[in-house]
Amino acid sequence: MSTAAAISDLRAYCEDVAKRAKAAAAKMATLLGRQKNEWLRLGARLLRDRQQEILEANQRDVAAAPEFGLTDAQVDRLLLNPSRIEAIARGMEEVALLPDPVGQVIWSSVRPNGLHVQKVRVPLGVIFFIYESRPNVTADAAALCVKSGNAVILRGGKEAAHSSQKIVELLWEAADQTGIPRDALQLISTPDRQAVGYLLQMPEYIDVVIPRGGEGLIRRVTEEAKMPVIKHFTGNCHVYLDASADPELAVKITVNAKCQRMGVCNAAESLLVHRAVAETLLPRVCAALAERGIEIRGCPETQRLFPQAKPATEDDYYREYLGPIIAVRVVDSLDEAIRHINHYGSHHTDAIVTRDLQAARRFVAEVDSSAVMVNASTRFNDGYEFGLGAEIGISTDKFHARGPCGLEELTTYKWVVYGDGQVRE
Fold first, then answer.
1. Which terminus of the chain has a lower count of CB atoms within 10 Å, N or C?
2. pLDDT score, position 8
3. Cβ(199)–Cβ(232) below 8 Å
């Protein structure tokens, strides 16, 4: 087949997928919440009952990981086991327990002329979701999109192709049995990156695109997309130890934020320590991190207080390491900490450890991030942990969604007006 013919076929394939998703979205908007919940519960049951099929598919992906040059953190994201499959199934069941956002009346008023005006929550329509090699995200995204009345086109990483395909096949079985349009859940079957390019040029069918992955992918999508994009570029998250920080909490929270799982966007990448407590607290916290294999890259004051630290460059304070490295700086004040975070950070997740209520209030008000933590780990910025059931991603945008994107973030609204013959004079 010639290159021109191949491109023509690929474009036609993408357009067919998008058209079918658009048609399915119209049906999804009118589905009863009961049907969607039945699909979620049946899908969860199939994932549990057929977990061996999923594990076999996942082993094919894991075995091929060296061919793709995946890091240890990336292989960890890719790997499924019975406990992770159980977590996926439980997540779908928890989404089923959440209120159906579709049709919710957000605001209403009866005007002096008798018009009844309502602001009503409705689905976005067709969501194009591009994501990294994490098979659990396939089920999470499907659950949230279907529950919120949307059709979704999934484009997962090629490294997880077999795992994602098997999960979608099981969810299709559940759809067939519960009256959910199969075309409301589609998985792009080609690894050809040009397919993404074609779909990004189809705003007549696709209402919004959500990229979730590396910064390069997200910047490409942002530049090429003809429809709105919900995104975050990087997760340069900070922990700031204030002058009044409790030492025990400082160690506990910093170690958890950095070490509990390093290859995720809400892991801490930078540590700031107030000069008033740096002499005693910084060596203790850095030692706890070093004991867990974390390389410390610090400012001159950090190197003086913790000699094992390597010198930090300007670039280190911008970096999302997604691995065993953390950038450390001693700051003179809360003001300097806030300025540092707003300058170097990625507006994702930032935490303060303090016993000073006024300092906490200022940090919350002045740090410009999607989530701000007070005396808690950055690792909690997560849809499941926030009670959303699951998330399709974490947005650092301010429009249309910010932070973990759950059911409500996958809807918009329309104005509905009821009258009995009123006309405008």
1. C
2. 62
3. no
DSSP 229: B
The structure tokens listed for 18 are 């998008």
Structural domains of the chain ordered from first start? 3-230+405-418 (3.40.605.10), 237-380 (3.40.309.10)
Dihedrals phi, psi of 287, to nearest 5 degrees:
-65, -40
Q: Which amino acid is at 44?
A: A
Note the Cα 384 to chain centre separation in Å: 11
Which residues neighbour 32 within 8 Å (Cβ) at sequence distance 6 or greater? Answer: none
Q: How far is CA 3 from CA 6, 10, 105, 201, 413, in A?
A: 5, 10, 51, 20, 43
**Number of C-alpha atoms within 13 angstroms, CB side, residue 164?**
29
Span 152-195, pLDDT tens digits: 999 999 999 999 999 999 999 999 999 999 999 999 989 999 99
Which residues, at least 6 apart from 291, have a Cβ–Cβ distance to it below 8 Å?
Answer: none
Residues 6+ apart with CB under 8 A from 400: 228, 230, 409, 412
Main-chain phi, psi angles of 344, to 5 degrees: -90, -25
pTM of the model: 0.90
pLDDT beyond 70 at 1: no
Q: How many residues does the chain have?
A: 425
Separation CA 142–CA 21 (nearest Å)? 13
198-to-8, 13, 342 alpha-carbon distances in Å: 11, 10, 36
pLDDT tier for residue 310 given thresholds of 50, 70 and 90: very high
Q: How far apart are CA 24 and CA 30, in angstroms?
A: 11
**CA–CA dist 187, 373 (Å, integer):** 36
DSSP run (H or E) holding 35: helix 33-49
Q: Please name the residues in contact with 280: beta carbons below 8 A apart, sequence gap of 6 or more.
A: 247
For residues 259 and 285, give the distance between their C-alpha atoms in angstroms, rounded to a whole number.
12
Question: What value does the mean pLDDT take over residues 266-291?
Answer: 98
Range of weakest confidence among 12-16, 69-73, 201-205 = 69-73
C-alpha–C-alpha distance, residues 392 and 405, integer Å: 6
